Amino acid sequence: MLSVYEGFFSGGARILHSDVLLGLQEGDQHHRVLSIHAEVHREATRQRMEDDACYRSLTAAGVGVSSLGRVFPASGDQAGFTGPELADTARATADVDVILSLKEQPLRLLNQAGLPRRPVVVCLHRSDPENQGPALDELKAAIADGTVVACVCCAESTRVAYEAAGIPADLLHVVPNGVDLLRFRPNPARRLALRTALGIPVAAPVVVFAARYDAMKNVPLFLRAARAWLEREPDGHVLMCGAGMTAANPGLDADIEAAFGAQRSPTDRVRLLGVRHDMESVYAGADVVALTSSWGEAAPLCLVEGMMCGAVPVATDVGDSAVIVAGHGFVTPPDPAAIARAWTEAAASRADLAPALAASRERFSRTRMIASYAALLDRVAAGAAARPALPESL
Fold it and tell me: What CATH topology corresponds to 188-363?
């Protein structure tokens, strides 16, 4: 099987999909990856494929990864593909049984004429198909010509949104996100080590915000809530992780200036950590995992990973966030003062909520998720073998 990525850059969908491939590779399925871009410049960060943690984990496990070599946005915003790029794609897809498209964006490549026709499964990870530019039209075109045979939705909100956008209901299969429960778990040693490394007292309340620097994440709202919370919690600390969450990002610096104004002293307790590859330690060191997104989210990985490490989730009501948080944390309106109050309550309730978080672990199991993916892909592959070969694209 072949997965097609837009590129290797920091984000929950790529982390999750790469983990799924690792799990499927451990079974009886053989997977490869084709990345349209070899380098991506976004979230004020230059992200090379070879530097990406997902790329390294896949290749270390024997999953072959190749690229068309594009650089985004230098060459990635054009619609057309060159002859050599299409030839590389044809070679990559020639001997596979099923193609997985990570989100619908790679369909602009897979829909090109002249490529081998293989059944495509599209993995959908958002709840706003109308905000995906021409990608929704590419998805509908691929369904209409019979190329796309199934869509994996990571959340019920994804299924509902895409069905409302005109995608046939019988193609939409919900497989909720899961995480490695051995990696993401409460760990007192990691908690102490993280706080010691950052100079944070053991008893201090800590809020973590794990997100790339993108408008949908509503970073300004998070920062306004952080100011309100830090002013009421003199011992509190805020950790910001993800692509673009660094002092080198002028957009983030402007957001901090707008949120805190002349009251910059609380920002001494705001740590900009950038992309981290030890999120299990960051979450274990926190009391609260926060999400302030305004749109687009489906089943935010940060909420699941943070919960499994013992952090109490506090989220705005977007996608499946309220369902994930129910009984384990707090849902807030998009209001800084309300969010700050919820963080305080969540930190104080951490010990009381621990039994509920522990009892929910199997629901968020990576093993369960991978088994569901494997079963669907096996069915698609078996169906493809039983059908006459699709004609080559004209």
Answer: Rossmann fold (3.40.50)
